[in-house]
Amino acid sequence: MFLPKAELHLHIEGTLEPELAFELAARNGVTLPYADTDALREAYRFEDLQSFLNLYYELMAVLRTERDFEDLANAYLARAAAQGVRHAEIFFDPQAHTSRGLDIGTVVEGLWRALGNSEANHGVSTRLILCFLRDESAESALATLDAAKPYLDRITGVGLDSAEVGHPPVKFRAVYEAAAALGLRRVAHAGEEGPPEYITEALDVLGVERVDHGLRCVEDPALVERLVRDRVPLTLCPLSNVRLRTVDTLADHPLPAMLDAGLMCTVNSDDPAYFGGYAGDNFDAVRATLGLTDERLRELARNSFLASFLEDDEELRARYLAEVEAHTFR
Ligand code: ADE
Ligand code: ZN
């Protein structure tokens, strides 16, 4: 039995497995510049975040219809459920699709066909988080939020992703203010490749409630102290950090030290089709390589539900937390 957990850092476009990419390419008459799935997998050798993003955006060309987004999300939910994920707060990148001529409604409605039935079909509750691409303009982010207005009953919050360095959180002050005024929850990637100052800025300027990655906080003791004091959740993605060379090897990952420091860490998969594992695989890897005790693993699972946006269903959160406490390791 997998430890029950919430996944809080998951890009739905990053769950596109090579087999599904080729299936959708055939269905939509799109030609991919790879001979087959093996050739595509050969391209999964990344130097850094940007080299990954180049492939990530390239493969999105196969996503064209509501049914494509539905199939993508159902494939993820089935795999996540099989690894103990009970609740998933799922990122999507509308600008990566509207820039290719798709309507944002195609994306949201398609994802919702899967997410809206996920509790019944997969036993996984879900929330949807709209991410702005930080290497696009602030105006484009505002236009995206505006285009999303008809769908806000399906969208719980906003996030910020894509190429981090050179695109500080302050660039998106206005759109985060507008999102807050609409009652949306706020998160942002910060401190993945960018400096600790971006984490501070995401908290102070964007008012984020969770920090996605936040890994580089360890370089600033005063920031660590603040994150501990305020119990700010960090959505760490260990296998992603290895594949994108944010850490040299998994054995070098600061997760154990971060937990020892009292940081509210969670473990997530980021883009599991590209980084070698889903949520349960990330838990297994940190257990095997970093020697986390059963109680540390239970703490990570507990944190994931405590940090989730389940304020609208505290009964469900309590049920999940009870599942975590009842779990027996072997
Ligand atoms: N988009 C998808 N995965 C991402 C990551 N790890 N960092 C920033 N943007 C992303
Ligand atoms: Zn991410």
UniProtKB/TrEMBL annotation:
Keyword set, alphabetical order: Hydrolase, Metal-binding, Nucleotide metabolism, Zinc
Q: What class of enzyme is it?
A: hydrolase
Which residues are catalytic?
192
Q: Name one GO biological process term.
A: adenine catabolic process
Q: Which Gene3D superfamilies match?
A: Metal-dependent hydrolases (3.20.20.140)
Q: Where does the Adenosine deaminase domain start and stop, copy by copy?
A: 4-316
State any GO CC term.
cytosol
Q: What is its EC number?
A: 3.5.4.2
Metal-binding as UniProt keyword: yes
Where along this sequence does the record place binding of substrate?
Answer: 271
Tell me if Zinc is a UniProt keyword of this record: yes
Q: Which Pfam families match?
A: A_deaminase
Give the co-factor note: Binds 1 zinc ion per subunit.
Reactions mediated catalytically: adenine + H2O + H(+) = hypoxanthine + NH4(+)
Gene Ontology terms, MF aspect:
adenine deaminase activity; zinc ion binding
Q: Which residues bind Zn(2+)?
A: 9, 11, 189, 270
Organism superkingdom: Bacteria
Q: Which InterPro entries match?
A: A_deaminase_dom, ADE, Ado/ade_deaminase, Metal_Hydrolase
Q: What PANTHER family does the record point to?
A: ADENINE DEAMINASE
Family listed: Belongs to the metallo-dependent hydrolases superfamily. Adenosine and AMP deaminases family. Adenine deaminase type 2 subfamily.
Indicate what this protein is called per its UniProt record: Adenine deaminase
Q: Could you tell me which species this protein originates from?
A: Streptomyces paradoxus
